[in-house]
Design brief:
Layout (H helix, E strand, L loop, with lengths): L27 E3 L10 H20 L2 E5 L5 H15 L3 H4 L11 E3 L3 E2 L2 E2 L3 E6 L4 E4 L9 E4 L10 H26 L17 E7 L11 E4 L5 E6 L5 E4 L6 E3 L7 E5 L1 H6 L9 E3 L7 E8 L6 E2 L17 E2 H13 L30
Parallel strand pairs: 1-2
Antiparallel strand pairs: 2-14, 3-6, 4-5, 6-9, 7-8, 9-16, 10-15, 11-14, 11-16, 12-13, 12-15, 17-18
Bound molecules: 2-oxoglutaric acid (AKG) and fe (ii) ion (FE2).
2-oxoglutaric acid binds next to strand 9, strand 11, strand 15 and strand 16.
Length: about 375
C-alpha cells in the first residue's frame, strides 16, 4: 500500500467517516411539468407545486436531484464514455493539454481545495468559448484577456461531444433559474441578463481508487461559487453534503440518470441568505474509480454580485456587500493551483455583519 503523500492528508477534523449516512431527505424533484406547455388550470397548478418544491429544497437543503429533466440520455452517456477514454491515456498524453496559470483550462491533477490536495484528475472547459476574464490575479485588475479551451487529440470527438452536452446543460440551467426566481417571488427571467456573457464551465472529474479513503478526499469540503451547479454522477457514489439541519456529512445516493443541483454562493447572495450555498465534499473509494461531470452556471465576468433590490428592504437589509464575480474567481483560482498559507476567499468575507454568519463560523480560519 505504501505511504500516503502528506499533501493529500486532511486535518483530523476533516477526515471522512467510512460509514454512510444516507440522506433520504434530499428531495428528488420531477421536472416533467416543464416539458408540456398547455395553458390549462391543471398545468398551472402543477407548475405552482413544482416552484414550491424547488423553493423548499433550496431553503432546507441547498441541494436537490431532478428527474425527467429533458436532458438527452444519449448525450450524457457519450460524454461519460469520452471522459473515460480521455483519462485512460498515459499521463504524458494528458499533460499535452495541461492547464497552467496563464491558460487555466485543460487537464490538471494537482488541484488543492482548502490547501489540501484532492485525490482526482480533471479536464476543464468553458461552455462558451472563449470567455473574457481579468488578465491577472491582482486585486482590481482592470485589463481583460480571453481564455480559450484546449482540446486533446484523443478521443477525437471529445470536443464535439462536450460542446453538445454544454448546450443541454445551459437549457436546463435557465429552466432551473426560472424556477428559483419564481420561488423567490420574482419574474421568471429575472436572472437571465446576468448570464448573457456567461463564464460557465464544465469539469470532467476522475477519482481513481484510493488506498487511503480514511485520510484523503476526492474533493475537500467547499461551496460552489457560481449561480448553480448541475452535477451528473455515475453509480459509484461519494458525494457528501453537509446537512443543514444538524451539520452531519450526508451521502447523496446516486439516482440513475438524474442530476444533482446545488445552489451556488451567488444565488445565496442574490437571495440575501434565503437560499444557502451548502458545503459538500467527495469521498474516495478504495476499489472503484468514479466519474462525475459538474456544470457550473456562472454569470458574466463584469457582474457585480449583490442582494437583489426586490428582496432587500428595511426588515431584510442587504447581508452582503457587492463584489465583482471575476475578481472573486481570480482569487479562488490562485488557491486551486498551489498550497497557500492564507485562507481562501469566501462570500462570508463580504458579509455586512460578520456575526450574522451562522453557518460558516465567521471567527474560524479553516474555510
Ligand atoms: O464529483 C462530485 O460529486 C462533486 C464535485 C464537486 O463538488 C465540484 O467539482 O465542485
Ligand atoms: Fe462542488
Amino acid at each position: 500500500m505504501g505511504e500516503v503523500d502528506p499533501a493529500f492528508v486532511q486535518e483530523l477534523e476533516h477526515r471522512p467517516k467510512l460509514g454512510i449516512i444516507a440522506a433520504e431527505g434530499i428531495p428528488i424533484i420531477d421536472l416533467s411539468t416543464l416539458s408540456s406547455s398547455d395553458a390549462t388550470p391543471d398545468h398551472s397548478q402543477a407548475l405552482e407545486g413544482l416552484v414550491k418544491q424547488v423553493g423548499n429544497a433550496c431553503r432546507d437543503w441547498g441541494f436537490f436531484q431532478v428527474i425527467n429533466h429533458g436532458v438527452s440520455l444519449e448525450k450524457r452517456e457519450k460524454i461519460f464514455n469520452a471522459s473515460k477514454k480521455f483519462f485512460a491515456q498515459p499521463l504524458e498524453e494528458k499533460n499535452k493539454i495541461r492547464r497552467d496559470d496563464k491558460g487555466a483550462l485543460g487537464y490538471y491533477d494537482t488541484e488543492h481545495t482548502k490547501n489540501v490536495r484532492d485525490w482526482k484528475e480533471v479536464f476543464d472547459f468553458t461552455a462558451h468559448n472563449p470567455i473574457i476574464i481579468p488578465a491577472s490575479y491582482k486585486p482590481d485588475e482592470k485589463e481583460l484577456t480571453k481564455l480559450g479551451n484546449q482540446w486533446p487529440e484523443h478521443p477525437p470527438d471529445l470536443r464535439e461531444i462536450c460542446e453538445d452536452y454544454a448546450k443541454e446543460m445551459e437549457r436546463l440551467a435557465f429552466k432551473l433559474m426560472e424556477l428559483i426566481a419564481l420561488s423567490l417571488g420574482l419574474r421568471p427571467d429575472r436572472f437571465h441578463g446576468f448570464f448573457k456573457d456567461q463564464t460557465s464551465a464544465i469539469r470532467l472529474n476522475h477519482y481513481p481508487p484510493c488506498p487511503f479513503p480514511h485520510l484523503a478526499l476526492g474533493v475537500g469540503r467547499h461551496k460552489d461559487p457560481g449561480g448553480l451547479t448541475i452535477l451528473a454522477q455515475d453509480d459509484v457514489g461519494g458525494l457528501e453534503v453537509k446537512r443543514k439541519s444538524d451539520g452531519e456529512w450526508t451521502w447523496v445516493k446516486p439516482t440513475p440518470n438524474s442530476y444533482t443541483i446545488n445552489v451556488g454562493d451567488i444565488s445565496q447572495v442574490w437571495s440575501n441568505d434565503a437560499y444557502e450555498s451548502v458545503e459538500h465534499r467527495v469521498k474516495v473509494n478504495p476499489e472503484k474509480e468514479r466519474f462525475s461531470i459538474p456544470y457550473f452556471f456562472n454569470p458574466a465576468h463584469y457582474t457585480i454580485v449583490k442582494p437583489l433590490e426586490e428582496i432587500v428592504n428595511e426588515q431584510n437589509p442587504a447581508k452582503f456587500r457587492p463584489y465583482n464575480w471575476a475578481d472573486f474567481m481570480a482569487n479562488r483560482k490562485r488557491s486551486n493551483f498551489q498550497k497557500l498559507d492564507v485562507e481562501n476567499l469566501q462570500i462570508s468575507h463580504y458579509r455586512t455583519s460578520k456575526l450574522a454568519d451562522k453557518s460558516e463560523g465567521a471567527l474560524s480560519i479553516n474555510n
